[in-house]
Amino acid sequence: MVLCSLPFSPLNIGSKQDSGSTICRSYKYTDWGLVQELIRLCQWDDYFTTESLEAVVTLFYRNVTLCLDTVAPKKIVKLSRHRAEYIPRAHRNKLRKLKKQYYSTKDISLLLSIHESLESIKRLRSQKDLDEELTALESTSKVYNLTALLKKRMQLTREIPYLLHDKVIYNEPATICELFSDWFANFSLETHMPGEIAPVTSSSLESIVFTNQLIVQAIKSLKPSTSTGPDGLASIIFKNSGCDIPLLLLKFFSISMDTGTYPSEWKTSFIIPHYKSGDKANVRNYRPINITPVISRIMEKVVKDQLSDYLIREDLVTRSQHGFLKNRSCVTCHFDFFNCITSSREARKLVVVLYFDISRAFDMVSHSILFEKLYSCGIRNPLLNWLKSFLSNRVQITKVGSVLSHPRQISSGVVQGSVLGPLLFTVYINSICKCFTSGKPFLYADDLKVVYSCYTHELSDMVTKIHLELSSLATWCAESSLNFNIDKCGWICIGNSKLDLTLEINGRKLAKLNSVVDLGIRYSSNLTFAEQTDYARRKARRLIGCITRNFFYCETRVLLYKVCVRPILEYCPFILSGLRQNDKLKLEGVQRQFTSRTLGLESGLQYHERCERLRLEPLWKRRLKLNLIFYYKLTNLLLHSSEPITKPNTVTSYNLRNHHNLIAIEHCQTYVRYNFFLNKFSVIWNRLPANVRDANTLPVFISSVTRLLKDDNALLRLTLTPSFSPYIDILSSLNV
């Protein structure tokens, strides 16, 4: 066990006593009404009259800690090492006694007694599991508690039993912790002095406005957790301590922003190693996730919202970036990318996609370059000084289980796992898109791919342009203190799987890929997504098996299916609408299997009847609804897209009914474009009643579509399914 003194002493979670115990608070029986009253009775006169940030920090933590010590004092808690098969001591002693008697007497009846004892233990364990499940099901945060219980019963653990480093195996917890700490802090300190970056806007953002309402909204967005950060305060405290906490934080945050100073008490973060892929014994296969103080995340949320609104409003972020910005996501990135490559294939062009992986991108951000870029975007003091203070003099402590490493000073990088860090990285990497004039880049944070397309006779010219832009990209990375992980970079050709190109960056050849996993979707050169379907199906079935084996109440199974399994089967529904018929049936078959296992085969119910009994919708119907909502968002500019999506159809001179807000249908020559979401759902969109298409808000549209899909006749018209067919569920699913 490694003991270390944190950079601040007042109220951090305390050092661990030994590897088998920890110091924590229990909030299980906390009277939050009493907490609110105690906070109100504390002495706050000096807090509201002082203008010293240090005094505000000290008074806030002192008073809140005194209240918590009264209602939920710290206790030393032993860490349970009992596994699922743990046998209580009384039963264990009885079994040992029976075993000893049997070996001495060879009495067969003792075997029956042993069997009865084991059955009794199984019954006790089953009853304990039932009680545990029922408690979680009846709690106010049943989704959170049931998913935590699922992880526990799946035995998902972050324990790292050993590491292999320099051909030596280490299994001591303290040594493992220090190895991770050394790796996470092992990067070159910045030495590059940036040149002056020209301003890109005449506008400016000097400060962040804090209001009581904004702080309340930020607190509501927190998950109700009892886990603490380095300062010892859990999110449940802020969520349950009443209306006085936002007022106290308003004073706190305002002084911090006005003085351009980020409290030093918040600059210490715990680092949790998060496994990525590959060998679990290799420290290189883990990424650092920062656990920062909850109070800091509340302030960062308000800063991030206003800063991102400014960047988008002033068009300071490239439209190719889809990460960590309002109305942008992995799904919008996939949509823009797939729309681009299907359009190129419709034009009978070859498509070459280059994938790049930046090594430890968040850790290698140069602070001096970042501050220059923020200044060029119009960020001025005191906000700029506050951001400098936010990133400077940070300390990280790696935490593995209950073991803490020695503190490490960090002089570069943005905080990965914080609220504000990803947005700052977005500003840092924004200019990378200027390296590409022939290729079309797509970004999600540091995940970069570039699409090149050309006719076959233009291939040599395209390769020349790729080489020039790869050289420009290498120069940009060198100037930005970033490096590529060439082993994880590569290219894929769509339209000619036999094409062989020699593409290099920094003197190293990029590998040709047969398929690639990109933001959770498996792309291959034929764009069938069969590999993605099989992966989602296997993963969902494993989860269903775990749920049905470990949980007994029908309500619990359905809730966990909705939360944990169904999102796997519905990820990027616009891509799923273009799957082959067999793959669509495979996905629907997963839910068929779940409903059968939950209700039992003896129920004798058809699939749609089982869905009604369990209050589930068939996947094809949900996919139809989700895609219509996605289409509405695109056409009403509620989602980001790098290019205009659709144009209203020209109204003819004929007085046609239901003609308003129709969409022009693209005439496609290739199957991949014909089967693409935009073409397919333009047709379905035009079949919607005019009052549904003309909905003026998203909630109105969603409620209108929901009502429409409950009408079987309207549903059959949308999917063009014969009403006399006995296989409506199957045939409808193939059309959407």
Automatic annotation (TrEMBL):
Reverse transcriptase domain mapped to chain residues: 255-510
Listed Pfam families: RVT_1
Domain of life: Eukaryota
Protein name, UniProt field: Reverse transcriptase domain-containing protein
Organism: Trichobilharzia regenti
